[in-house]
Amino acid sequence: MKKIKYAHKNTLCEYDLSLDFFKELGIKINDVVPLRKVFLLYTDEGNKILKKVNYDIDRINIISDSLDYIKKKYNNVIAFDKLKNSLNYIQWKGNLYVVMDLLQGREATFSNPIEIELCAENLAMLHNASNGLKEYLEKKYSKNMMDISLKDKFTMSYDNLCNLKEMVSKYKYKNQFDTLFMENVDKYLDEIVNVNNKLEKSSYISLRNMEDKISICHNDLAYHNFLINDRDVNILDFDFMTIDLRVIDIADFILKSIKNVAFDINKMILEINSYEKINKLSLEEKEVLGILIEFPRDFYSIVDDYYNKGKSWDYDVFLNRLLGKLDNESFRYEFLETYNKMLNKDVSQNK
Predict the structure, then answer these.
(1) Which of 216, 286, 290, 296 could be joined to 130 by an S-S link, Cβ 3.0–4.6 Å?
(2) How far apart are CA 82 and CA 79, in angstroms?
(3) How far apart are CA 50 and CA 32, in angstroms?
(4) Bridge partners (DSSP) listed for residue 34
(5) Mean pLDDT of 320-347
(6) Is the pLDDT confidence value at 2 over 50?
(7) Distance (Å, rounded) from C-alpha 187 to C-alpha 192?
(8) For residues 145 and 49, what is the distance between their CA atoms, to the nearest angstrom?
């Protein structure tokens, strides 16, 4: 229990919760309670979230401007508060902090089909509300706001795995994680080549030039970033937001919800159908969706985090995660086979 309770203690210890800090913040604090990587502030102005961010002021402003833009049409996102300094952040002893309102509700349950449906519908509404955001941000910041291409991401992933393979091959002693990595890496390198080839043959490039296919992408649509209160859903934590194809966000949402339930194709169908109540997806987008799921994301992310110190987990946690992901692969392959049959059927019916 202690490991779970204090899993983020190193992050929380980086906060400076001195009286001088709270005075500079300009909020009268009655109580402070840790929650994951943030602190809950109980104040005279309502309950708040204090969060130390690991990005620069320019990105804080881009996130804040994006959420303000979206809230004009879709109010169910949690934006940064304006503070005593008239900014949406405070800089204190070399760190940047933001404050947000704490809303009533609980984390979504992805095993509940009703809540899955609600989350998918709200994701579609979020994407709708961000129509025109790319142009708005590019005009304000005088730079291209589109995220780097999937081709570049796939290529970087391939190169990273190759470098890791070369590094681990030179280890005099290999632990079980190293051995599993070396036994499987070539297969996944082949898979990345395959998805890159499919991407080049797809309509991906033309989709990137269609403004109605571009939206804000949250990029971390896990259950804990959907806050549910009755049938109201709020979407939290836009730290990793980008501007890109909406289908990239849909793929992230689907993968977050199905990878721990044996890649349940029926859950994916429910999610797409629920999303399409608000936003219809084209066959070309669904083709790219399949490519995104075919990319070996689980294997890549766990070995990248392990060797490049992306997470401060114990060795046993990394090993068990890798074993679990490898055991899950047969379900992913079965899922992809079924999904591709469904897609081919849709293509045939639309000819």
Answers:
(1) 216
(2) 10
(3) 9
(4) 39
(5) 91
(6) no
(7) 9
(8) 28
In angstroms, the CA 258 to CA 332 distance is 9
Q: What's the whole-model pTM score?
A: 0.92
Structure tokens of 150?
Answer: 């999937």
DSSP for residue 75: -
Task: Report yes or no: 239 and 220 within 8 Å, Cβ to Cβ.
Answer: yes
Tell me the pLDDT tens digit for each residue of 265-293: 999 999 999 999 999 999 999 999 999 99
The tokens for 35 are: 């929650």
Lowest mean pLDDT, pick from 118-122, 309-313, 325-329: 309-313
**pLDDT at res. 290:** 95
Residues with Cβ within 8 Å of 39's Cβ and at least 6 positions away in sequence, in order, are 12, 15, 17, 32, 33, 49, 50, 51
Helical ranges in 71-112 per DSSP H: none
């919800």: which residue's tokens? 257
* CA–CA dist 192, 149 (Å, integer): 15
| DSSP strands (E only) in 56-176 | 90-92, 95-101, 106-107
| Amino acid identity for residue 105 in this structure | G
Give CA–CA dist 168/178, Å, rounded.
7
| Residue tagged 């049959």 (tokens) | 341
